[in-house]
Amino acid sequence: MSMKAFVLNCPIDLCSLDEALNKANDAIRNNINFQIITINPEMIMNAQKNEHFFNILSNSDLNIADGVGVKIALKLKKIKQNQIRGVDFSRELIKLASENNYRIAFLGAKEEIIQKAKENFLKKYPNLNFVYTRNGYFDDENKIIEEIKSANPQILLVGLGSPKQEEIIVKLKSVLQGCTMVGVGGSFDVFSGIVKESPMIYRKLGLEWLYRTILQPERFKRIFPVLPIFLIKCIIESIQKKG
Ligand code: UDP
């Protein structure tokens, strides 16, 4: 059991990238399903008003601190936790799949993006054992669930945006066996090379969200006012805990 901390009542697992990866690997070896959520402030704020999503966050097997906002929220509680970027974690999972010949599946993003992402990984790891690849634009969710069940992957990356990706993973958890599943948001767009990854300096300064907002100004509506309210709520929470 890893240590957990709570940010606005949502559990975060305190662990390093390697520890998270080892847990996923153990689950695959023991043939058990394992849901990983790469948690960010938007998700925590969504959980405040959406009880169903709060339950998903609370019942997942591992919640890793993806957003820099989560790292700051933990710091307010004097808890040190490095940010584990979803894209970095996903890359390591794929490396793990190639080293162990695990069956792998991708679900999400636009067709050209998902195919390019797959192609790029196959260039890097030609032995990757892809059993399923599907874009994220579909009407019949049950059909997709059946297809993935037949493909029987051991690692499944789902990039549909939140909460859609976490919701379908919960459904898949009840039909798959021995599968590690992670919601990867827009990571396929980055893996395809079509969307640029934020430069190292932005990552180091924790300003990745700013870089993405400059490239995609429509994201501004999504993160404001969510991000400032999240931080204010976290500050209030940390003051209340002290008092
Ligand atoms: N997407 C999808 N199906 C949908 C809606 C979105 O596959 O019905 C994909 C979209 O193409 C993108 C990802 O989901 O690749 C969402 O990315 P976003 O930037 O919203 O996620 P974030 O990284 O912010 O969590």
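^ uridine-5'-diphosphate complex. Residues 226-242 form the longest helix (17 residues). Strands lie at 3-7, 10-14, 34-39, 62-65, 103-108, 129-134, 155-159, 180-183.
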